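anyone else get weird line breaks when pasting these?? whatever heres mine. first is seq + C-alpha cells for prot A
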Amino acid sequence: MTLAHKPGSIVGTPFFKAPTDYPDSPLSKALQQPVLLGLFLPIQAGGWTNSTLPRSTDWRFDYNRDLTLKAEELGFDLVFALSQWLPKGGYGGVFNGQALDSFVSIAAMAAITKKIMLISTMHVLYGPWHPLHLAKFGATLDHISGGRWGINVVTGHRAVEHEMFGWNRIEHDRRYELAAEFVEVLQRLWQDDENFSFSGESSWKLNGGFVTPKPNYGRPILVNATGSDAGISFAGRYSDIVFVTSPAGSDIASALEALPAHTKKVKDAALGVGRTVRTLLNPLVISRPTEKEAWAVADQIVARADSRTPKGFQTFNSDAQAWKGREGRDDPYAKVGGNIYLIGTPEQIVDQFVKLKDAGIDGLQLSFFDFKPDLEFFGENILPLMKQAGLRNA
C-alpha cells in the first residue's frame, strides 16, 4: 500500500483508533476525573522560574524520578517534560542549558511507575527522527508502561534549534503539514496489519515498513502544544490533549477573560472533524497558609530575578505562537514562571482552579518554584480542597 498526500494538505484519518476508544485505557480512566492533574517536571536547569533565590529544584534524573513517584502517590494523572536544543550557555543565567532529554528521561520512568501517564516532548522534524524509528520505540514504551506513555508532538521552536541540526528553518505552517504526514505514518505503522509503503511531501520514505507488537490501545497518547491556527487544526485532527496557553498573559484575571474563546476555538477544531480534545494549562503555584506569606515568597522570587536570562531569550528568534505576546508585558510577577501564576492560600488557589475549569480548561499541568516542598504542601493542603470542590474524585 502507498500513501500519497496532496501537497500542502493536512489529512486526518478518522478510522485510526485512539486510546479514548478503549474504556480500560489509562487515558480513558484518567478522563473520568473532573479535572486532569499533571506535573511539569523540571528536567532543565532553572526549572520554570528565572530567579537566583535558593531552592531544591534540580534538573537531575534522581530529583525528577522522586517527583514523579510522589505525584503518582498523590494520584496525579500525568507527568510531562519539555525538550530543548540550545547552544552553550542556554538562555543565560539560571537557564544555562543543562537539561535532560525528554524522551529518554520520561522513558526511564516507565518501568518504575504503575499508574501515572508519561508524556515525552519530541521535535519530530529535527535531525534523524524517522516515523519508523518512533513507531517502534513508541510501541515498545507502550508495552513497558501498559499504555501510559505518550508524545507531545512539537514541530519546532527557535531558529537556533533548526540550525543546530544543519537545517534551514521551515516556515511555521509548513512544519505542521510535515508533522501531519509524520503522525499519519506513525498511526498506520501502529495499526496496519500489512507492510506499509509511503511517499509524500516530506523526506521520509517507507518501503514495506511494519511494526509489531502493536500498541495496547490503538496508539500511544498524542499531545500537542499550540496557539496558532495551523497548530490548532493539527491538534484537532490528531491530539488527545492540547496544551494551551493564555493569549492574554500570565496574570489570572487576564487569562480568565481570554481563555473561554480560546479553548472553544481549540475544541471546535476537533468537533469539526468528529473528534474530542481536552485542554491542558500550565499554572505555576505559590501557596502558603496565609496570603501574606504566599506573596512574600513571590516578592522574594521577583527580587532575585536573574537579569541575564531575558537577554538570552531575546537572542533566539522564535515564531512559535503558543507563548506569543507574553514577553514585554509589564508584570513583574510574570518572572515567577508558568504560563499563568497563581499566588495565595490553598483556598484561593482552588477557587482559581474552579474558575479555570469554568473557562474551558480540562486539566492543570502544575509547576512550582521549589518543587519537592511545594509538591508536598500541595498534596497536604490543596489536593483535599480540590476534592471538596468537585475538581478531583475522592
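and prot B, same format (seq, then C-alpha cells)
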Amino acid sequence: MAGIKITGYGCAHGDRTVTNEELARVVDSSDAWIRSRTGIESRYFADNRSNLDMACEAAEMAFQRWGGDRGAVDLLLVCTFTPDLATPSVACGAAGRLGLSQKVMCLDINGACSGFVYGCTLAHAMLTAGDARCALVIGSEKISPLMDLTERGSAILFGDGAGAVVLEADGTKEFASYSDCIPESETLFCERFDPAIMMKGQEVYRFAVNAVPESIYGVLRRAGRRVEDVDWFICHQANLRILRSVAGKLDVGMEHFYVNIQRYGNTSAASVAICLSEMLEKGLLKPGQRVIITGFGAGLTCGSILLTV
C-alpha cells in the first residue's frame, strides 16, 4: 500500500516535573513500588499550560523541522480525550493559533491511548486518496486535572504532554494498518459528571499483553512481513511490564523497543507521538527502516501501523 512520509516532528510537555517521591506524599505509595510496578520515575504536569498550549508548541517544533509552508496544511487532526473545551475542538483552536489556512479540515479524535495511531491511519487514507496534500497530526493530553489522588492505581500513571508530526503522501514508502476493539468495556473510563479517571489495572494489563502482539502480527500479515523485518517497535507507553511482556511474546529483544515511560509516565494519545519525535531527534530512525507503532487503551481498543522511515 502506498505510504506516507514524516516531514516534520516535535513534542512538548507539562511545565512541572513530578517525581515519584513527590507523588508519594499525597498518594499511598512509594518510589520503589511505583518503579517496580510501572517503570515510571517521574512525569510532567501542566499546571500553567492548557492542552492547546502543548499541542501548539509541539506543532511549531514540527513546522520548524519541516521547513515547509504551513499554509499548505489542509488536514489537522488532534488526538485527545482531554480537550480544554467541549467545543470548539482543540484542532480548531490550534488552526487559529498556528495561522493555518482557513480551508484546513479540523477534527479532534477521541481514541484515548490508541488515538494517535488512529489519527495517522485516517491521515494516510486521506493523503493517499488525494483528499488532502499535507496533514498535521497531533497527540496531546492534559490528564492531570482528571486524576483522583486517592486512587493509587491510576494516580501514579499519568502525565501531560504532546507530540506532533507533519505527514505527506509518498508512493515509495510502505504502509499497513490493523485495529481491534472490545466495545463497551468499562475497564478504563471517565464519567461525564465525575471526570476522575477510573481504571481496572489488571484487566487492562491482561488485555494489552494479548491484544498488542495480536495487533502487531495482524499488521505484519497485511504487509506480508515478519517480525524479523521490523527494526523498531514504538508502543504506547502505558507500563514497562506490558512492554516487556509484549517483547517476550514476539521473541524480540527490548533493544528494539523505544522506552521513555520513566520520564513521561502514561501520556495517552501523546505517548507514541512523543516517542517518534524523540527518536527522530536522536537520529535513531534511519531511512529505509521499518517501524511498527501501536496504541492501546480505553474502549478497549488497539491499533498498529507498519511504516518505513
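btw re prot B: Residues 184-193 have pLDDT under 50 and may be disordered. The chain has two domains: 3-170, 175-308.
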